[in-house]
Amino acid sequence: MKCGDVLSDGLNLRPVNFDDRKILFEWRNDSLTRKNSLHTEIVNWEKHCQWFEKILDTHRLFFILEDKYYPVGQVRIDIENGVGTVNYSIAPDKRGFGYGKIILQLCENYLYEQQPSISLRGIVKKDNIASQKIFLSLNYAEKEDDNYFVYEKTALSHYKIKNAISRG
Ligand SMILES: CC(C)(COP(=O)(O)OP(=O)(O)OC[C@H]1O[C@@H](n2cnc3c(N)ncnc32)[C@H](O)[C@@H]1OP(=O)(O)O)[C@@H](O)C(=O)NCCC(=O)NCCS
Predict the structure, then answer these.
(1) 32-58 pLDDT, tens per residue?
(2) Which end of the chain is more exposed for a tag (fewer CB within 10 A), N or C?
(3) Which atom of ligand 1 is nearest the CA belonging to 90?
(4) Ligand 1 atom closest to the CA of 103, numbered from 1
């Protein structure tokens, strides 16, 4: 899959662009997103715009999931020392329909086609059951910390699972 390809079911993972800054601001300050984030404080518009401009200049792995051209969620992977930390959320009115798993799966497929040496990592608070279930269902390995669950996956395990699925 190439980024920007519209899949047959109308789902499309596309790169974030400047026009997304308002919707990303709304999603970022949504109460559940703030509660589930490592940094829980609300961000003001000015700070968001400064952050967003910088990120647009530098970031290659920041996507919006669209369903029939309607934006339903965002995912970003921040890479440091060969580890890509996943940040993702689904629009408040689109939760509960399974988009969280789809956005991670599409982003993972894209990343591993481009950069197979990266390991992926998700850090999930202990009361965020939906996100824990999503990482587990995508076969991430789980480690328990005092306050979080940490999920990890390598390209090797990604391709092992993909091949097993395609062999049936
Ligand atoms: C976390 C989030 C991305 C989940 O996305 P989603 O598409 O709405 O997820 P779903 O509601 O489809 O839930 C995923 C799974 O968890 C299950 N689940 C959800 N809430 C649950 C709960 N309270 N108890 C048990 N299971 C639960 C669902 O039944 C589903 O399981 P299934 O695939 O077996 O049917 C979304 O809630 C969100 O954007 N939250 C705010 C931001 C956030 O938490 N981001 C992740 C930070 S690590």
Answers:
(1) 999 999 999 999 999 999 999 999 988
(2) C
(3) 39
(4) 7
